[in-house]
């Protein structure tokens, strides 16, 4: 699933080399943390969150086949002042 997320997000953003997906395994839940450059966050989220919701739907459907639950979170880095 990690590769699926990377493939989809890299095809959307302007800086595909900056895409980083981290997988955190739990007992029945897998959490994916997505990091992209600040200027690409809006492209990943999409209008009214439609793009990220579509990606989450694909991830949840893939996880459901394995009997797992999956969560996809966009992690924003704090900007230094």
Key attributes of the depicted protein:
81 residues, alpha+beta, GMP Synthetase, Chain A, domain 3, three-stranded mixed sheet
Structure write-up:
The chain is α+β, with helices and mostly antiparallel strands. It has a single domain (2-74), classed as GMP Synthetase, Chain A, domain 3 (2-Layer Sandwich), CATH 3.30.300.20. Helices cover 40% and strands 23% of the residues. The protein contains 3 helices and 3 strands. Strand 1 (20-25) and strand 2 form a beta hairpin.
Summarize the entry for a quick read.
The protein has 81 residues and is an alpha+beta fold. It is built from 3 helices and 3 strands; from the N terminus they run H-E-E-H-H-E.
Parts with pLDDT < 50 across at least 5 consecutive residues: none
How many distinct beta strands?
Answer: 3
Computed Rg: 13 Å
Mean pLDDT: 91
Major sheet: 3 strands, mixed
Name the CATH architecture. Answer: 2-Layer Sandwich
Q: How many domains comprise the coordinates?
A: 1
CATH topology: GMP Synthetase, Chain A, domain 3
Helix coverage percent of residues?
A: 25-40%
Q: How is the largest sheet built, in terms of strand order?
A: 1-2-3
Shape: globular
């Amino acid at each position: 699933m990690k590769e699926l997320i990377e493939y989809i997000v890299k095809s959307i953003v302007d800086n595909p080399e900056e895409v980083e997906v981290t997988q955190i395994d739990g007992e029945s839940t897998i959490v994916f943390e997505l990091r992209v450059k600040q200027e690409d966050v809006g492209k990943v989220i999409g209008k009214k969150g439609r793009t990220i919701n579509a990606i989450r739907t694909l991830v949840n459907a893939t996880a459901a086949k394995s009997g797992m639950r999956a969560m996809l979170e966009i992690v924003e880095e704090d900007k230094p002042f």
